[in-house]
Amino acid sequence: MKKALLSALFVLSFSLSSAQLIIEKIEDGDDFTFPVVQGHTPAADKINTILRLEILGNVQDTSIAMSTIGPSHDRPSGAYMMHLETDINTQHILSFNTDAEYCGAYCEYYIDFHSFDAQTGEKFTLRDLFTPHGYDRLSAMAREERLRMLKEAINKCDQYAESLKDALTDEQDEDMRNSLLSDLEINADEREIYERCIEVIHSVHSISQFKINEEENSLSLIRERCSAHYNRGIDNVGRLYTNYTYNQLSPLLSAYGRKILLGEENDAIASHMEGKLFAGTIAGKYSIRLLIERLYNDHSLGGKYYYERVGQGIRISGNLEGKTLTLREYNEDSEQTGSFDLILNEDHTKATGTWTSSAGKVLKVELSRTL
Fold it and tell me: How many C-beta atoms surround the C-beta of residue 248 within 10 A?
């Protein structure tokens, strides 16, 4: 990656009637684009912190952090391309879409979406937008539609297999027969991709990735493709998109979801732990910020935290059981270097407890959600 980064070549601005925030693009040639929300406001600070910490792993300098995520002479793996573009910028929602290619043992292209409350800077998730019953209902709807799409793909494979077998019956040319047999084998492999995906969806199904379609007043749920890197070339289904209009979703929305998606006036806040940022201290003097990036159905979680005077993200993982939050921290070599034992208050906006070093030193911790 080039070391000289070009910044602020242009600023995207929007009228105050439809948007609240101004976004600057930090660029590195044609391969990397990263947004920075302008203005010294709590919302801008929170959005910038979450994006930098979650994606770049460093919050102090976007340009420097971008230079660390790509490959180098001593680190061949990394992001070979990454573009974060503004998708929605309205009074209530600021959303970015990510297109990226990451290479390690093999290269993989992926997309992602990051949605924020434009008023507070909170990152919100599907569990924030829907009631518990509404979330379960939405999950069931997505599961049913994804299974339907895969079964339809299997039927197409079966129909194609029958046509190939019919062609084999009448074909005398040896080269053509070998070609037809090869097509049959590839078709069987494709069918197996969908069959295995159905088994996975039956046993473990979740919804997390979503895209808000502002102009269509709809929301799309996205599941990554069923195939692996080695057989993605024969996967003709690809990512599974299921779309729902706001009218369909309205009975399932939480008060916060109605505020964000429908523009309803209320005081509801994003209450789910995933995507939320905490600020506080260790030993009353070391200022830190802690981000819960992912919270899974089995109560396990992942995220990062950093010391404000340093700005470098430290990876954490752990579990949330009721009000008990247990976290372990790791260095770049995946060695555990410390742990948090915390108790949350009733609405999960505050956490108190201890941090223990790998040497056994115990220090007091106090954290609060940055509302």
Answer: 13
From first to last of its 371 residues, the chain has per-residue pLDDT tens of 444 444 433 344 433 334 579 999 988 878 899 999 998 899 999 999 999 999 989 897 776 666 677 766 566 677 889 999 999 999 999 999 999 988 877 888 888 999 999 999 999 999 999 999 999 999 999 999 999 999 999 999 999 999 999 999 988 899 999 999 999 999 999 999 999 999 999 998 889 999 999 999 999 999 999 999 889 999 999 999 999 999 999 999 999 999 999 999 999 999 899 999 999 999 999 999 999 999 998 999 999 999 999 999 999 999 999 999 999 999 989 999 999 999 999 999 999 999 999 999 999 999 999 76
Q: Which of 67, 90, 124 is the last residue of a domain?
A: 124
15 and 87 share one domain: yes
CB 183 within 8 A of CB 217: no
Q: Is 1 part of any domain?
A: no
Domain shared by 118 and 142, yes or no: no
Rounded to the nearest 10 degrees, what angle do helices 174-203 and 132-170 cross at? 160
Domain boundary among 262, 293, 322: 262
Burial 227-241, CB ≥16 within 10 A → b, else e: beeeeeeebebeebe
Q: Which residues contact 296 (CB under 8 A, 6 or more apart)?
A: 206
Tell me, yes or no, whether 365 lies in a domain.
yes
- 3-class secondary structure, 60: coil
* Domain range for 115: 6-124
Name residue 244's beta-bridge partners: 219
Rounded distance, CA 335 to CA 310, Å? 20
Verify that 119 and 141 share a domain, yes or no: no
Residues 69 and 100 in one domain: yes
244 and 347 part of one domain: no
Separation of alpha carbons 290 and 281, rounded Å: 10
Q: Which two tokens stand for residue 161?
A: 């297999």
Select from 147, 143, 233 the least CA-distant residue to 190: 233
